[in-house]
Design goal:
The chain has one domain (2-21, 38-149): Immunoglobulin-like. Helices cover 12% and strands 44% of the residues. It has one helix at residues 2-20, and strands spanning 40-46, 58-65, 70-77, 81-82, 87-93, 98-103, 109-116, 122-132, 140-149. Strands 4, 5, 6, 8 and 9 form a 5-stranded antiparallel β-sheet that branches. Strands 1-2-3-7 form a 4-stranded antiparallel β-sheet, with helices on one face. The longest helix is centred in the first third of the chain and has 19 residues, at 2-20. The protein is elongated and about 45 Å long. This is Spore-associated protein A.
């Protein structure tokens, strides 16, 4: 339980740090979740499990480029979580567009996925399947999502 509390705090720190950084990301800042030039962070959301909210196994990042009207989503895995069963992310726009990037071979990140969404709401769903390095291979799937939001 204590480990989950620390992971929750770690995920909260990632979210806070990401929200503070509002300058457009570049390809050189890949490790902080860059979708490319002109994108700014709209939201960051930690994955959760059936037994623990905000496990920290991964964080969904949603970005927006106001110049192009495109949304971008990425899922990043925590360094202490082994994604043995892969990862996936799905971005949806309220006009019916869907973009998915998922594979059982992904180990560090899923995405980026891009969709044009100016004037529409977006939602994001993601998952990572694996285990914590110190958990004796107790495999599970953590999921999460950002409900319809960022409309306009």
């Amino acid at each position: 339980m204590r480990r989950n509390a620390f992971r929750f705090l770690g995920a909260a720190a990632v979210i806070a740090a990401t929200a503070v950084v509002s300058t457009p990301a570049s390809a050189n800042t890949y490790m902080v979740g860059s979708c490319g030039s002109g994108y700014s962070v709209q939201e960051a959301f930690p994955l959760s499990s059936d037994t623990a909210p905000a496990t920290g196994s991964g964080v969904i990042f949603l970005y927006y480029n106001s110049s192009t009207g495109k949304n971008c989503a990425i899922l990043r895995r925590d360094v202490d979580f082994v994604a043995s069963g892969g990862m996936g992310i799905t971005l949806r726009v309220s006009d019916g567009q869907v973009a998915t990037d998922a594979s059982s071979n992904y180990r560090s990140y899923a995405g980026p996925v891009y969709l044009y969404g100016r004037g529409h709401c977006v939602s994001v769903d993601a998952w990572v399947r694996g285990y914590w390095k110190d958990s004796a291979y107790l495999s599970h799937t953590d999921t999460g999502g950002i409900a319809w939001s960022h409309c306009g």
